Amino acid sequence: MFNSILKGMGIGKGVQEDTETDKKAYTVDEYIRRTTPNRQHAGVNVTPSTSLRQADIYSCIKIISESIAMLPLKVYKIEGDNRVQVPPTHRLHSIYSERPNEYTTTQELVETLVTNLLTYGNSYCYLNRRDDGKVVEIIPFQYPNSVQVDINTDGRVYYTYVTNDHKTYNRVFDLNEMLHIKLNGQNGYEGMSPIDKAAESIGISIANARYTAKTFENAAMTSGVLSVGNDQELTDEQYGRLQDSYEDYRGVNAAGKILILEGGATFQATSQSNQQAQVLELAKFSREQIGSIFRVPVSMLNDTSAATYNNVENNTLNFMRHTLLPHIRKIETAFNELIDRGYECKFDVTEFLRGDSKTQVEVCDGLAKLGAISVNEIRNKFGMNSVEGADVFQVATNNAEFGDWSEAAEMRQESRDMAKEAHELSMNPPEPEPTEVVPESGTKSIEVLETDKRLLSQDYIIDKVMRSNPNQLQMFIDKLISFGINDIPSDGSSHMVEDGLDSVYDVIDAIKLLDGDQLDEMVKITFEIEGRE
Question: Do 451 and 382 share a structural domain?
Answer without folding.
Answer: no
